[in-house]
Amino acid sequence: MKKDPSGIEYEPAARKSREVVHEVGSLSSRVVEMLDIKGKATEGGPGVGSCDASGDGARKYRSVRHPWSMYGVGNGALEKGMENLHNALPQQGWKVVKYGQDSSQNRNLEILAVHLKTHTQLEATWMKGLDGHTPLLEITLYSRCYEAKS
Predict the structure, then answer these.
(1) Contact (CB, 8 A) for 26 and 20
(2) Calpha distance 143→86 (Å, rounded)
(3) What pLDDT does 77 receive?
(4) What's the pLDDT score for residue 3?
(5) DSSP β-bridge partners for residue 126
(6) Residue among 66, 73, 83 nearest 122 (CA)
(7) What is the distance between the alpha carbons of residues 22 and 111, in angstroms, rounded to a whole number?
(8) Residue pair 13/62 in contact by the 8 Å Cβ criterion
(9) CA distances from 79 to 6, 39, 46, 146 (A)
(10) Which of 52, 91, 101, 146 has the fewest CB atoms within 10 Å around its CB?
(11) Measured CA angle at 117 (ends 42, 70), to 5 deg
(12) What is the pLDDT of residue 102?
């Protein structure tokens, strides 16, 4: 498909925001299960925002993001959680597109994946805390852009 003026390379579907919020929230809950570690998760749920588009698309299209973190356990547990997630994602309908170190100074381990049915994207990063911060897993799921309908 040819890129439209909004900068989006696909035709965003018309969807109800509450349905997309539920979809992303459900996938996020599955990620917690796949991690299979006993850490603490930050509060808050998925939220609707404008899509990363240009021109009229910035006002017309929406997307749902759900950022959260898993913390309160040591690096050994966090490493195991990332390994569990990496191994479980393909069995749960995800395609892992990157598994390896990020470009930061700390060379944090990251997973980038796409859910094949919904096209929801996942970014998971193990922040080891080498810079003095608390070790944690930083997780963000975000939906494809869609045209909000009532």
Answers:
(1) no
(2) 20
(3) 95
(4) 45
(5) 109, 137
(6) 66
(7) 23
(8) no
(9) 39, 12, 25, 34
(10) 91
(11) 15
(12) 84
In the prediction, which pLDDT does 9 show?
81
Which pLDDT score is estimated for 60? 82
CA distance 56 to 59: 6
pLDDT value for 99: 96
- What pLDDT, on the 0 to 100 scale, is given for residue 51? 87
Question: Which pair of tokens denotes residue 141?
Answer: 């799921």
Nearest to 45 by CA among 144, 150, 141, 145: 141
With beta carbons less than 8 A apart as the criterion, state whether 20 and 48 touch: yes
For CA atoms 58, 2, 21, 17, the dihedral sign is positive
Please answer whether residues 62 and 145 qualify as being in contact, where contact means their C-beta atoms are separated by less than 8 angstroms.
yes
Rg (CA), the chain: 16
Give 122-130 contacts, CB < 8 A, sequence gap 24+. Answer: 122/27, 122/31, 122/89, 122/94, 124/31, 124/82, 124/85, 126/75, 126/78, 126/79, 126/81, 126/82, 128/75, 128/78, 129/75, 130/106
- For residue 10, give the DSSP letter: S
- For the beta carbon of residue 50, count every other beta carbon within 10 angstroms: 13
